[in-house]
Amino acid sequence: MKTKAIVFTGIRQIEVSEVQLKPLGSTDVLVETYWSSISTGTEKMAYNGLIPSPPFIFPFIPGYETVGKITEVGDHVKESLIGKFAYIAGSFGYEGVNAAFGGASQFVACPVDSITILDGIENPQCGIALPLGATALHIVDLAEVKNKKILILGQGAVGILAAELSKLMGAKLVAATEPHPKRLKFSPADIRINPEKEDVSAALAGHEFDVLIDSTGIMAAIDTGLRFLKFHGTVIFGGYYQRMNIDYSQAFQKELSFIAAKQWAQGDLERVRALIAERRLNAEKIFTHQSPVDESITETYLKAFGDPDCLKMILNWKSEGKEANGSCYLTGKP
């Protein structure tokens, strides 16, 4: 079966191409994509050729944020799944093209065990928030935020969700820094600081934080944040970093602990799905931009990569998009 897909063909080269799906296996499902999204971290680095290792070998299909409807199942998969919406973390089910992670395709063939059924969410488009929500949840779990004071650097999509989840999980105080006014406006943090317009030291005077969460990848920002950690404080690295170059003297003097957060843990996607359905996590706030999948795909990616007001770019694979209307929450919930 052939399908339309977004393909990174070389450094800074993107096109919408026809690709060949592998035959559906006995434990696979075939999903028709309604929405996918652009990762402004991983995919931006791959676009610029900064991840020259498998699976990011050109040509490749990106995408680990995909939602669609199951249209066909393998022989060993329950037929009752047909017609259900699911979140797909990606797929390796292609011939002649690599997958990194392969979710940006009009049709996706993947193992049934790798999907998350979106039962309980009124608007399945909100399933796009599952991977970022699960990433933020894993960060917050590693931080053990209950009754602690948390400082978060950066209020992109992950930073905003980490701030919201920190408060939900019982943090005593959440402060956040972010230089872009619109992003800062979305932040649920108790203390919100624009470091380009305010004196961070003055804004945080009198506070010592138990945990520093970085979602910027900017070493200078991390160095500044380290100054506000208490003795035996913890730093959580919430992004992907090519190299680390921070002020070791702060780590030495305060005997700081450093933890690298890798994506999400088992069960986190389901936990985020439940939080969205129960109206405990507002995922919609990160959906700032939408675009069709068409010949202007390169411009769409560049906007997602370069516009600080774009928290999350949703790609619409179906023109009618009627399922995109409504909230993320269960019908009948308060």
TrEMBL record:
Pfam families, A to Z: ADH_N, ADH_zinc_N
CDD domains: 2-desacetyl-2-hydroxyethyl_bacteriochlorophyllide_like
The entry's keywords: Oxidoreductase
InterPro entries: ADH-like_C, ADH-like_N, BchC, GroES-like_sf, NAD(P)-bd_dom_sf
Domain Alcohol dehydrogenase-like N-terminal span(s) in chain numbering: 26-113
Annotated organism of origin: Chlorobium phaeovibrioides
Record-linked SUPFAM superfamilies: GroES-like, NAD(P)-binding Rossmann-fold domains
GO molecular function ontology, one term from the record: bacteriochlorophyllide-a dehydrogenase activity
Name of the protein: Chlorophyll synthesis pathway protein BchC
The keyword Ribosomal protein appears for this protein: no
Alcohol dehydrogenase-like C-terminal domain location: 157-261
